[in-house]
Amino acid sequence: MLKLYRIDFHAVNWEVLDQFEDRTVFQTREWLEFVAETQRAEPVVAEVREGSARVGYFSGLIVRRLGVRVLGSSLPGWTTPYIGFNLAPGASRKEALRALEGFAFKELGCLHLEVSDRSFHAGDGEELGFAPGVYASYETDLTKTEEELFSGMTSACRRCIRKSEKSGVRIEEATDEAFAVEYYEQLKDVFAKQDLVPTYNVERVKSLIRHLAPSGRLLLIRARGPEGQPAGSGIYPGMNKVAQFWGNASFRHFQHLRPNEALHWYAMRYWKRRGIEIFDWGGGGEYKEKYGGRPISIPWMRKSRYRFLEVMRREVKRAVDMKQRVLGRLQAGAPTAAGGREEPDGEG
Description:
This protein has 348 residues and is an alpha+beta fold.
């Protein structure tokens, strides 16, 4: 039987954790500190043991929502698609999930738990009474050659990348927090086109850069037009086997230069050359199919100690979604009725 034992966050041996093959950037000290700062959360790291043998680790964070203690690994709105476990080969994620339930509700005093893990199987939580959910995305196999990656895109996408190059678009890497302001101005323009506002503020982007950039696990890139003007920007964290499309944006009046396609193509090659094997496209969106990735569904399990909390979760999410639509309409000076979303010029 597996059991979880909490470790003092300041005493964690991060070098040991980072050696796990299933480790992703979202489980690192830097990322957990980023989420803790932006969500006013309490980070949690625990050993997973079978008897006296350590078989892995769990990472997550505790927040309070309407007075209720919630353990997230991850939670909606954190711009962190999955966290979960790091386990030795042969250790059961289903049994780790069973142990996590008791750890969350009894030892941590939480009343609601959510966990998503790239290595979960769809049925892992079904017998344990977890409500099923999915994080839908696309992924590209970066073990292919650059020629194979390029030919795997649609012909229209390839033409866009070539057009960007011929138009004089230049991609440059960045490391400074000033990048956050530039990116966020472009992101506001993306959402304004859809009568919406961004789901997070510029301080979150600054926090991400402050925590992650020194680690070398964060790629920040700008797309500049032929006269050096900022046209678009992208954010792509990565570690071990997986790199992630976290967000990108571009100004509408530079769309004819196709900066987004140029940014993504640069990021894919950047991480491939550093040994990354998978490029995760950071969520759904049919427009991502043109890059040749395959669709994936990562299980997102959740469970409440009391049934009413599941109803409260749905209502809170509905209220947040409505608030974003209303704010976007007011900012655009348009009626507040809900409207459809267009294919984005970027994503956050």
